[in-house]
Amino acid sequence: MVSFYFKGDARDITDHLLLLKEELTPESDENAKESLTDTRILQSVLDICIAGTVTSSDTLKWMVMYVAANPKVQTKIHKEIDDLENNLDDLRRCRSKMTYCEAVVREVMRIRPAGPVALRHKTLCDTELGGYDIPKDTIVYANIWAIHHDPKNWESPEVFSPERFLEKDGSLKKLDTKTWLPFGSGKRKCVGEALAMAEIMMFMALFFHRFRVSFPPDVQPNFEPMMFEINATPFPQKISVQKRE
Ligand code: HEM
């Protein structure tokens, strides 16, 4: 077991990992030693900095854009957040009451998944998928974007509609993880899903509690994604942000 005792002032997760490494003794658990080699520490920090930042910030950018372009959605978000009656200090508890906001997050992640083709994987053996033979050692990508925009899976997939994730009584529908998979699927699915959902919901509540967003009248919103190898980012564009009364 790793001991969670820290010397000094740990400023962030890198400090915490380095301090844990300092605590190791020859008698320490072998798993702990293996988890705290310099290479593993560097890799963990890179995972957080790369896998865990652009994905969340892109999702937030798309969210602000779709909300700005859909005033009725924004009105519902504001109502749901206002109904929390300033209990925003306890956002973890509030989340269960933010069903509309969560439907908005799900719809943003469906229509603009931050990792549209997940990460690259390699086949370990000759295999067959959907009638195609795939030899051993082939690099493969999962086309999440296509699954999320397939009319067989989603009615009017190009339309932004958080309501598709809601039951008639306003509760969240059970997710079909075969057709909604912004975090990938299977054993190598995103390890940061729970953290990402928590931080995105927190940002959403705090941001829309204070602000209203819209596209300036002279701006034509551009929802085309800038595609990099593994992420889909919005093009820079002007959005007007007003403080709510
Ligand atoms: C909206 C936010 C996020 C989205 C949409 C997202 C999406 C994804 C996707 C699609 C994959 C690839 C899964 C696959 O290849 O099957 C992935 C992997 C990964 N994600 Fe995330 N992610 C997000 C946030 C985060 C956060 C906050 C962290 C960590 C702090 C994180 C850490 C990772 C790691 C370490 C992997 C690689 C897992 C492995 O290879 O076993 N992600 N993510």
From TrEMBL:
Keywords: Heme, Iron, Metal-binding, Monooxygenase, Oxidoreductase
GO biological process: hormone biosynthetic process; progesterone metabolic process
Residues the entry annotates as binding heme: C190
Keyword Cell division: no
Tagged with keyword Cell cycle: no
One Pfam family cited in the UniProt record for this chain: p450
Domain of life: Eukaryota
Coiled coil (UniProt feature): none
GO MF, one annotated term: steroid 17-alpha-monooxygenase activity
Cofactors that this protein relies on: heme
Protein family: Belongs to the cytochrome P450 family.
Protein name: Steroid 17-alpha-hydroxylase/17,20 lyase-like
Originating organism: Lingula anatina
Gene: LOC106155950
